[in-house]
TrEMBL record:
<protein>
    <submittedName>
        <fullName>Hydroxyproline O-galactosyltransferase galt2</fullName>
    </submittedName>
</protein>
<dbReference type="Pfam" id="PF01762">
    <property type="entry name" value="Galactosyl_T"/>
</dbReference>
<keyword id="KW-0808">Transferase</keyword>
<dbReference type="InterPro" id="IPR001079">
    <property type="entry name" value="Galectin_CRD"/>
</dbReference>
<keyword id="KW-0472">Membrane</keyword>
<comment type="pathway">
    <text>Protein modification; protein glycosylation.</text>
</comment>
<keyword id="KW-0812">Transmembrane</keyword>
<keyword id="KW-0464">Manganese</keyword>
<keyword id="KW-0328">Glycosyltransferase</keyword>
<keyword id="KW-0333">Golgi apparatus</keyword>
<dbReference type="Pfam" id="PF00337">
    <property type="entry name" value="Gal-bind_lectin"/>
</dbReference>
<comment type="similarity">
    <text>Belongs to the glycosyltransferase 31 family.</text>
</comment>
<feature type="domain" description="Galectin">
    <location>
        <begin position="173"/>
        <end position="384"/>
    </location>
</feature>
<dbReference type="InterPro" id="IPR013320">
    <property type="entry name" value="ConA-like_dom_sf"/>
</dbReference>
<dbReference type="InterPro" id="IPR002659">
    <property type="entry name" value="Glyco_trans_31"/>
</dbReference>
<keyword id="KW-0735">Signal-anchor</keyword>
<keyword id="KW-1133">Transmembrane helix</keyword>
C-alpha cells in the first residue's frame, strides 16, 4: 500500500512539471509573436543601404554631422572645387537620419515618450519647414512674380476698405485686409446682437437633474492670419468674444485671446471689475478692463458716515459715472478696434471698454483677415488708416543689389570672432541696414570676423522665394529650414553655435538680433582684455532673475519649475568661447541639452552646466545695452534701420553717440 502511494505521488509530480513546462513554452511563443514584427522591422532597417540610415557619419575632419549640419543651408559663393562637394542651392535639405533605426520607429518611440510642449512644437516646425522648402521649389518652377517685386513693382494696397452686411454674409462672414494692419489702423463694426437662444450643454445634464438647456447670446470678432497647415484653422491674432448672457461666471464678460495651430493662449477676461492701475498692467496708458455696472457688487468704499463727514467739511464729491455692459440683445452697437503701440483698444459707443496687449509672435502685418461669427447681425464694416504696402512685400524699397554689399567668402583659416545675427524672413530692411553699416567695419573686411544672418522659413511662399533670392545674391544668409516662431528662436542659437565651430573656426562666437547695432572695434577690445584660452561668457548679465508668472512674458511652472533663472546675458548681444559652443553641440547631439523657449535664459543654463566642470569667466558690462542705447555703447538694441545709418555716420566721425529719435 505504501509503495503504491509513493508511485502515485511521483506521477503527480511528473504531471505538474509537464504542465509547467508546457505553460512556459506557450508564454515564449506568445512573446515571440508579439515581438516578431519589431524584430523584422529592425532587421529590414539593418539590411538597407548605409547611405540611407547613416548617423554621425564621419567627415574628412573627423567631426560627426548632426541635425543642424544636415539641415542648415548656407547660400554663399563657392569655388568650382567646392561646388562639387556642396549641395545645390536649389536642392532641398537632406532628410534627417537617425542611425540604424528608421525615422518611423524613432517617431513611434517619441510618441510613446512624454514629450514637452516645446519638443512637439519644434517637431511640427521642422515638418512644416521641410514642406515649405519643397513648395518653394515648385513655386519657383511656376515662374513667380518675385522678379517683378524685386524690380520695383510693389504690391499696392488701399488705405481703407469697407463692406456691407450683405457682402460680409456672401464671403462667409470674412473681410480681407490686403496688407494687414499697422499702428494707428482701426476697424469699426456696426451690428446688432441676437436675442438669447437655448443651447443644450451635455455637461450640465448630470448636475441639473436633466436640465441642460441654457440661454446663450455671444459673438466672436477675430483678426486672423494665413493658415500654417491645410485643414487647420488660421492663427487668431486677436480673438474678441463678448458673452452677453455670460458663461460659467453667470455674468456678462468680454474675453480676449490668441490661438496658433489650434493651441489657445491664456484668456484675458473682463467681467465689470476694473483692472489694476499699474504701469505694468496699462496698455498705452489705458486700463485693460474698464468698470461697468454689476448687480452682484455694491460699492461700499464710502460709508454714510464718511459721506456725512465730507459734506460737513465742505469737500466736494467727485462725480463718478458707471456705464452698463456695452452690448444689449436686440440693440445696435458701434464697436471700434484700434491698433495702438502696445496693444489693441476696444471702444463701444465711443467709450473705451477694454485693451488687449500684443502677444509675442502675433504681428499686426499678419492680420490679413477679419472674421465675424456668432449671434450677431453685421450691418457694415469699415477699416481705415491701413498700410498701403505690406512690409513683407516691399523688398525692392530696401534691397540694394550692388556688388559692394556682397559678403566675402568664409575664411579658411582661424578667425577671432564669428557673429550670428538672428533675423526674420521679412526683415529685409534690417538686414540691408546691417550690411551697409557695422558689417563694413575694417575687422570684418579683413576677414578677422565673419558675420552671417540666421533665418527660418515663413508660411508665406512669396517671402521664402524672395529670401532665397536675397540669400543667393548676398551670400550671407543661413536658412534654418523650420517654420519660424518666437518659442523656437533657441534653435537658431544652437545653429549659430554649430556654424561657429564647424563651418568656421572661431575663437569667440557672438549672438545678436537684427535690431542690434554693434561697435565691432569696441567689442574686439573688450574681448582682448580677457586672458587667452580662458572660457568666457560676456554680456549684460542678469543675476537672480525670477520667472514672470503673469503678463506678456509669462512662464508657467511646467515650463520652468525653479524659483530663479541661472545667471544669463541679455539676448540682444552676448559672447561665448568656442569650447562652450562645442559643449552645447555635444549635449544637443546626445539629446541631453535642456531647451527653454527663452533663448538667452537657455544660454545661461548651458553655460552654468559647462561651468560645473570647467571654470567659466562671467564678464558683465552695461554697455551691451538691453534697452536702446547709451553713450560709448558696445551694442545698441531696438535700433531701426534709420537709427543704424545714423549710428554708423557718427562712428565714421569718431563719435560713439546714440541716435534716439
Amino acid at each position: 500500500m505504501m509503495k503504491r502511494l509513493k508511485n502515485e505521488a511521483s506521477s503527480v509530480r511528473r504531471f505538474k512539471l509537464s504542465y509547467v513546462l508546457l505553460g512556459l513554452a506557450a508564454l515564449y511563443l506568445v512573446l515571440i509573436c508579439v515581438k516578431f514584427p519589431e524584430f523584422l522591422e529592425s532587421a529590414t532597417v539593418l539590411s538597407v543601404d548605409d547611405a540611407d540610415v547613416a548617423l554621425d557619419v564621419e567627415d574628412d575632419s573627423g567631426e560627426s554631422t548632426s541635425r543642424f549640419h544636415n539641415n542648415v543651408k548656407e547660400y554663399a559663393q563657392v569655388t568650382p572645387e567646392e561646388e562639387e562637394n556642396e549641395a545645390s542651392p536649389h536642392k532641398k535639405p537632406p532628410k534627417l537620419h537617425y542611425g540604424r533605426i528608421t525615422a518611423a520607429i524613432l517617431k513611434r518611440q517619441n510618441m510613446e515618450r512624454n514629450l514637452s510642449i516645446l519638443d512637439r512644437m519644434a517637431d511640427e516646425a521642422w515638418t512644416l519647414g521641410s514642406k515649405a522648402w519643397e513648395e518653394l521649389d515648385k513655386y519657383e518652377e511656376k515662374g513667380i512674380e518675385v522678379n517683378s517685386i524685386l524690380e520695383g513693382k510693389p504690391e499696392s494696397c488701399p488705405s481703407w476698405v469697407s463692406s456691407s452686411g450683405e457682402q460680409i454674409a456672401k464671403t462667409d462672414h470674412m473681410m480681407f485686409l490686403p496688407c494687414g494692419l499697422a499702428a494707428g489702423s482701426s476697424i469699426t463694426l456696426i451690428g446688432t446682437p441676437h436675442y438669447a437662444h437655448h443651447e443644450y450643454v451635455p455637461q450640465l445634464a448630470k448636475t441639473r437633474a436633466g436640465d441642460a438647456l441654457v440661454l446663450v447670446s455671444q459673438f466672436m470678432i477675430e483678426l486672423q492670419g494665413l493658415k500654417s497647415v491645410d485643414g487647420e484653422d488660421p492663427p487668431k491674432i486677436l480673438h474678441l468674444n463678448p458673452r452677453i448672457r455670460g458663461d460659467w461666471s453667470h455674468r456678462p464678460v468680454i474675453e480676449h485671446n490668441t490661438c496658433y495651430r489650434m493651441q489657445w493662449g491664456t484668456a484675458h477676461r473682463c467681467d465689470g471689475m476694473p483692472s489694476k492701475y499699474d504701469d505694468d498692467m496699462l496698455v498705452d496708458g489705458y486700463l485693460r478692463c474698464e468698470k461697468w455696472m454689476r448687480n452682484d457688487i455694491v460699492d461700499t468704499r464710502e460709508s454714510k458716515i464718511f459721506s456725512w463727514f465730507d459734506r460737513f467739511i465742505g469737500r466736494a464729491k467727485k462725480p463718478e459715472v458707471t456705464w452698463p455692459f456695452p452690448f444689449v440683445e436686440g440693440r445696435m452697437f458701434v464697436l471700434t478696434i484700434r491698433a495702438g503701440i502696445d496693444g489693441y483698444h476696444i471702444n463701444v459707443g465711443g467709450r473705451h471698454v477694454t485693451s488687449f496687449p500684443y502677444r509675442t509672435g502675433f504681428t499686426l502685418e499678419d492680420a490679413t483677415g477679419l472674421a465675424i461669427r456668432g449671434d450677431v447681425d453685421i450691418h457694415s464694416v469699415y477699416a481705415t488708416s491701413l498700410p498701403t504696402s505690406h512690409p513683407s512685400f516691399s523688398p525692392q524699397r530696401v534691397l540694394d543689389f550692388s556688388e559692394k554689399w556682397k559678403s566675402l567668402p568664409l575664411p579658411k583659416s582661424h578667425i577671432q570672432l564669428f557673429i550670428g545675427v538672428l533675423s526674420a524672413t521679412n526683415h529685409f530692411a534690417e538686414r540691408m541696414a546691417i550690411r551697409k553699416t557695422w558689417m563694413r567695419a575694417s575687422a570684418i573686411k579683413s576677414s578677422d570676423i565673419a558675420v552671417r544672418f540666421f533665418v527660418a522659413l515663413n508660411p508665406r511662399k512669396e517671402l521664402n522665394a524672395i529670401l532665397k533670392k536675397e540669400a543667393d545674391y548676398f551670400g550671407d544668409i543661413v536658412i534654418v529650414p523650420f517654420i519660424d516662431r518666437y518659442e523656437l528662436v533657441v534653435l537658431k542659437t544652437i545653429a549659430i553655435c554649430e556654424y561657429g565651430v564647424q563651418n568656421v573656426t572661431a575663437a569667440y562666437i557672438m549672438k545678436c538680433d537684427d535690431d542690434t547695432f554693434i561697435r565691432v572695434d569696441a567689442v574686439l577690445r573688450e574681448i582682448q582684455r580677457v586672458p587667452p584660452r580662458r572660457s568666457l561668457y560676456m554680456g549684460n548679465l542678469n543675476l537672480l532673475h525670477r520667472p514672470l508668472r503673469t503678463g506678456k512674458w509669462a512662464v508657467s511652472f511646467e515650463e520652468w519649475p525653479e524659483d530663479v533663472y541661472p545667471p544669463y546675458a541679455n539676448g540682444p548681444g552676448y559672447i561665448i568661447t568656442s569650447d562652450i559652443a562645442k559643449h552645447i553641440i555635444s549635449q544637443y547631439r546626445n539629446q541631453s541639452l535642456r531647451i527653454f523657449k527663452m533663448e538667452d535664459v537657455s544660454m545661461g543654463m548651458w553655460v552654468e552646466s559647462y561651468n560645473s566642470s570647467t571654470p567659466v569667466q562671467y564678464s558683465h558690462n552695461w554697455k551691451f545695452c538691453q534697452y536702446g542705447c547709451m553713450e560709448d555703447y558696445f551694442t545698441a538694441h531696438y535700433q531701426s534701420p534709420r537709427q543704424m545709418y545714423c549710428l554708423w555716420s557718427n562712428l565714421l566721425k569718431g563719435k560713439a553717440h546714440c541716435c534716439n529719435f
